[in-house]
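Case study: AI-2E family transporter.
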Amino acid sequence: MEKRRAFLENTLFFGLVLALGLLGVHWLLPLLSPLLAGFFVAFVAARPARWLHRRWRLPQRGCQTALTALLYLGLGAAIWYFGARLVVSLGSIFSSLPGFYAQEIAPLLSRFQEWLLGFIEGFSPGAPVYWEDFFALAGGSIDACLQKLSAWAMGAVTRLAAALPAVFLWCSVAVISGLFFAADYRGITRFFARCTPPRLAQVLYLVKDCVQRSALQMAKSYLILMAVTFAELAAGFWLLGIAHPVSMALLVAFVDLLPILGTGAVLVPWAAFLLLSGNTGLGLQMALLYAVISMVRSLLEPKVLGNQVGLHPLVALSSAYLGGAVLGFWGIFLGPLGAIVAQDLIAHGVIRLPGRVREARRRGRADREGRGEKPAKGG
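Here is what the predicted structure looks like once written out:
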């Protein structure tokens, strides 16, 4: 009965902690996000500032504040440059969708319709009449959807302009709080350390070290996989005679970083379009390139991630799926990171699994019996 009661108490405790954590993520995280972003930037600048202080005896507070300001300037310049180019590119793409459909997709669907109707007429002479109405309705629906998509994209510019004051306020709070955090980083962290119980502080330090180490390892793993994919794509596009092979390979390699999409989100529709448009040779070669890249990725990814992170591929897939289902897009990355932290906490004995506890008790009992000690009461 005591074991059952202890099990129920532990289950209720961890369930309550998990529920409070999810509520905090959904309610408090959006409110505190600019402050957390500022603290994260100050945290990133802390280690280089300590190195400069030890290396050249420069004041650590001034170094950290200057590095934080430089990080903000670099991030702002990158977001401004690439964001502006992305908005312009997406605007031109969405605005040209109806014309692209009318010039490229509609003739292709018309040829496919003629071939399919001729194929069906060989089996049932009266059936093509009904299929013609179906294809006409489907073509009108596709055209209407593209028109709505283009109008939505053009209206997104207006919505973005309306959201600029809130974005400016968020960025201002993040920048100012980051500079304040950097100016008194040691004092703020020591204050929170004094306010935290020793046992919890020890766990938080362990989690911080694990997250810092695991994030760097995951970034290194994905950069290695991205570099391999980029090299394969650049070589394949060059051999296939694709215009601007390096730029196209870099774009597809960036898409490959997203766990849900991958290279198939670009290469598979591209190959299908080439096959349906009559360019069978290039379409088959594009499909072969995707097959080679997928095979190399499936062989390298478990080994690279296993060597860098030490997480089982099934656990990584499950945690990415659950993280995405609970937290959305960012949960795809936070889920595996949380699994790595949990694995590290289990290894350090902070989280004790029932099987590990029973095994530790059996080992302790065997050690006591080996030393000739009497077993403890109730053990």
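For the exam, be able to explain this: The chain has two domains: 34-195, 198-368.
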